[in-house]
Amino acid sequence: LAWQDGPYGTSSEKVFHFSVMILVAAGVGVTPFASILKTLAFQAKNGVMETPLKKVAFFWTCRNEDEFNSFKDIMVGICEDPYLGSIFELNTYLTGEINLKKVAATQLYHQYAGRPDWNRIGRRIGEEFPEDDIGVFLCGPISIAHQLSAMCKKMNPPPASVRNQRVSDAKRQRKFIFYKENFQ
Predict the structure, then answer these.
(1) What is the pLDDT of residues 81-100, one digit of tens each?
(2) Average pLDDT of the residues in 24-53
(3) How many of the other CB atoms lie within 10 Å of CB of 115?
């Protein structure tokens, strides 16, 4: 009898090799990330991480606010835990019409109207963790993949900046590493 827990296959396995990560889901693309969030939260809480977590920044965009209800319990559970709340940053972005009464009812995680500014987000997280490689994971459409890929390229140091330095003088520079997963 064998027991297998957690997300396995494709790029989702790579999340366990980063201490800092940006997870981006669009619509139903949240499905694999729900499993990843639960697994990361469990492992962090129980001290069984391959790589100790420093930051999990989760961003979920949807057109309809009712879509957020499908995994609301997972997000609320993480936010209500003081230990996990210091590691996990949960953000939802509503790209369609917004009902302000519903938004005001749940303020445990960050809620926004409109689309994320990936460059601003990448810059903020990069400044917070200047020496850690940052895994950027997407389960969503190609349009967001292009935006995230461009953000990663923009945030990464140019290769020429290290070329003229001796190896012993070269300071370790953080990299943003992008992974995309299709889920339809």
Answers:
(1) 988 988 999 999 999 877 66
(2) 89
(3) 12
CATH of domain 22-156+173-181: 3.40.50.80
- pLDDT > 70: what percent of the chain? 79
By DSSP bridging, strand 110-113 and strand 88-94 are: parallel
Residue 112: pLDDT over 70 = yes
CA distance 130 to 150: 19
Whether the full predicted model's pTM is greater than 0.70, yes or no, is: yes
**Where do the DSSP E strands lie in the chain?**
20-26, 55-62, 88-94, 110-113, 134-139, 176-181
Residue that the structure tokens 């001290």 belong to: 47
**Tokens linked to 39:** 């697994």
3-state helix, strand, coil in the chain (%, to 5): 45, 20, 35
All structural domains of the chain with their residue ranges: 22-156+173-181
Give the C-alpha separation, 78 to 163, whole Å. 43
Count CA atoms closer than 13 A to 45's CA, side-chain side: 15
Residues in the chain: 184
Query: For 129-167, b where at least 16 C-beta lie within 10 A, e where not — what string?
Result: eeebbbbbbbbbeeebbebbbebbeebbeeeeeeeeeee
pLDDT of 115-146, one tens digit each? 999 999 999 999 999 999 999 999 999 999 99
